[in-house]
Structure formats: C-alpha cells, structure tokens
Amino acid sequence: MRRKLEAVALHALVIWAAILTAAPLLWMVSASFMRSGAATSSPPPLLPAAHTASLEHYRALFTSQSLGRYLLNSLLIAGGGPRWPATASPSCGSRGAIAYSGIWCC
Questions:
Q1: DSSP the chain
Q2: d(CA 65, CA 57)
Q3: Which of 20, 25, 50, 54 has the lowest tally of Cβ within 10 angstroms?
C-alpha cells in the first residue's frame, strides 16, 4: 500500500512539474494571438477573445523582420544544405580543414 501511495505522489509531482513547465510556453502562444497591449492589461486574459484574435504579430515577423529568410537559412544549414564530410568536423581540429580540401584524411 505504501509503495502505491509513493507512486501516486510521484506521478502527481511529475504532472505538477509538467504543468508549471508548460504554462509559460502556453501563455506565450496565447499572448502572440492577442492584439498589441492586450496581454499587458490588468488582469490579463488567459486566452485571446475570439473576435479579437489576430495573426498581426506573425505577419510582422515574416514581412518586416525577415523571419522567413532566417527560417530558410536554418533549414538549409540543418538538413538540406551541403553535406560536410565527417572528417571536417571541429573534433578533428586542424586536420579536418586539410581533410576537407582532399589533401589528408583524419
């Protein structure tokens, strides 16, 4: 019986920690759909009102802040860009740069 009680208490603690960890992320996503200034009103709403929710902040990110270009650059570097040889990694030190040029291998 004691072991089961400990397991229940541990699960409750883990769930509480998950809620505390996720709450700021959920607030940021919710606030990103609110109109400017709505998240700083007192008391702040937890969710944007259905008739006032907007994508204006996301439009600004992708148009005036060039986030689309940054996202494309990140995708190219992370997965779609040129494949660097394993020997040209920083762990190889200066030999990696020489290996990449085709002169020497690690």
A1: -HHHHHHHHHHHHHHHHHHHHHHHHHHHHHHHTSPTTTTTSSSPPSS--TTT---HHHHHHHHTS-HHHHHHHHHIIIIISPPPPGGGSGGGTHHHHHHHTTS---
A2: 10
A3: 50
Residue type, 31: A
Measured CA to CA, the distance from residue 85 to residue 67 in angstroms comes to 29
Listed by start position, the domains of the chain span 2-100
Chain segment 20-55, per-residue pLDDT in tens: 999 999 999 998 888 888 888 888 888 888 788 888
Could you tell me the two tokens for 98? 């020489």
Residue 67 confidence (pLDDT) above 60 = yes
Taking residues 82-104, report their average pLDDT.
53
